[in-house]
């Protein structure tokens, strides 16, 4: 079970696409930094995966969650990291 | 203690320093007796192309530097088959001996490791 940290906008970087290509259905995704722009992308709107977005980074950029993507804060981020066997950064 | 470490290389070689930094990490870890394997994914595959001549842009050859990997007992180099096809690259265009795996097999590779890092 892996937590994938998406840290770049999917509109200018392949991080999200590369991650979704190889992700396992048991894995989770966390959108953070410019990765939160993924909330606006069709790739995230279609996904059936467990997905989170870092609330601080969303608020900073004026974004709101539109679908099943759960907003979390830094404390919950730490919890998520400790609950997963691996944490991989995509940047 | 020896850890099984997977390095995911997903940066093309000369547009940023990431590919080089990843290789530096690999060689340093191997010097400390860690069990390293590499997965080339997405644009990272371009690091493996034969015939790189970056002297013209005043950089050192990535594929040239990787030829040292077998001396560090690093022989498990994986590439993602679909990413090769997407980039119109055949394994015979590559300068290293690699094993092609499917996208669907990558999570299994990740799960078999102690640590995973990406560059």
Descriptive account of the structure:
The complex is a heterodimer of chains A (91) and B (119). Chain A has 91 residues and is an alpha/beta fold. Chain A has a single domain, classed as DsrEFH-like (Hypothetical Protein Ychn, Chain: A). In chain A, 32% of the residues lie in helices and 24% in strands. A 5-stranded parallel β-sheet of chain A has the order 4-3-2-1-5. In chain A, strand 3 (50-54), helix 3 and strand 4 (70-72) form a beta-alpha-beta unit. Chains A and B meet through helix 1 and strand 5 of A and helix 4 and strand 5 of B.
What order do the helices and strands of chain A follow? EHEHEHEHE
- Share of helical residues of chain B: 25-40%
Q: Please, how many helices of chain B? A: 4
N-to-C span of chain B:
23 Å
The count of domains of chain A is: 1
Shape of chain A: globular
User: How would you describe the oligomerization state of the chains in this entry?
Assistant: heterodimer
CATH architecture of chain A: 3-Layer(aba) Sandwich
What is the C-alpha radius of gyration of chain A, as a whole number of Å? 12 Å
Which structural category do the helix and sheet elements of chain B fall into? Answer: alpha/beta
And the CATH topology of chain B?
Hypothetical Protein Ychn, Chain: A
* Helical proportion of chain A, percent range: 25-40%
**Widest sheet, order of strands of chain B:** 4-3-2-1-5
Q: Beta-strand level of the residues of chain B, as a percent range? A: 15-25%
């Amino acid at each position: 079970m892996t937590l994938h940290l998406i840290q770049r906008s999917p509109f200018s970087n392949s991080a999200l696409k590369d991650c979704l290509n190889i992700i396992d259905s048991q894995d989770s995704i966390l959108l953070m930094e410019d990765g939160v722009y993924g909330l606006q992308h069709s790739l995230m709107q279609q996904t059936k995966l467990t997905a989170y977005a870092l609330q601080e980074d969303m608020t900073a950029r004026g974004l709101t969650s539109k679908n099943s993507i759960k907003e979390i804060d830094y404390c919950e981020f730490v919890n998520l990291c400790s609950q997963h066997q691996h944490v991989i950064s995509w940047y | 203690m020896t850890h099984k470490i997977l390095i995911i290389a997903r940066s093309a070689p000369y547009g940023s320093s990431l590919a080089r930094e990843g290789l530096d990490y690999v060689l340093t870890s191997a010097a400390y007796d860690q069990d390293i394997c590499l997965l080339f994914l997405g644009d990272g595959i371009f690091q493996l192309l034969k015939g790189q001549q970056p002297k013209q842009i005043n950089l050192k050859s990535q594929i040239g530097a990787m030829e040292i990997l077998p001396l560090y007992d690093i022989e498990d180099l994986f590439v993602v088959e679909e990413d090769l096809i997407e980039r119109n690259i055949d394994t015979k265009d590559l300068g290293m001996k690699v094993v092609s795996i499917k996208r669907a097999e990558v999570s299994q590779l990740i799960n078999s490791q102690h640590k995973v890092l990406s560059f």
